[in-house]
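hiii so um. not sure if this is the right channel but i have a protein structure encoded as tokens and i wanna go backwards to a sequence. like what aa goes where. can anyone help
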């Protein structure tokens, strides 16, 4: 079973090889760069999705606040009569 590849794993692996002066084939650098770009793109996509979800929740919250304001106003009018 293969371990999950994350940005942290790639960075730490490459850092370890560089610090220990392990020779690294150019193809390994390219493979790491490609994987990192894909992972960053996935993170960007997730951030965009979460941002849209947050905006949707903020719109709902504004509607709820407005409904509460209207209900209080109506309640005040009923109490006034």
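sure thing!! here u go:
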């Amino acid at each position: 079973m293969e371990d999950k590849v994350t940005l942290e794993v790639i960075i730490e692996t490459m850092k370890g090889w560089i610090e220990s002066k392990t020779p690294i084939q150019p193809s390994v650098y390219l493979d790491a760069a490609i994987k990192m770009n894909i992972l960053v793109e996935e993170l960007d996509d997730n951030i965009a999705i979460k941002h849209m979800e947050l905006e949707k929740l903020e719109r709902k919250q504004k509607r709820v606040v407005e409904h509460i304001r209207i209900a209080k106003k109506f309640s005040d009018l009923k109490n006034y009569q």
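oh and Residues 7-80 form one domain.
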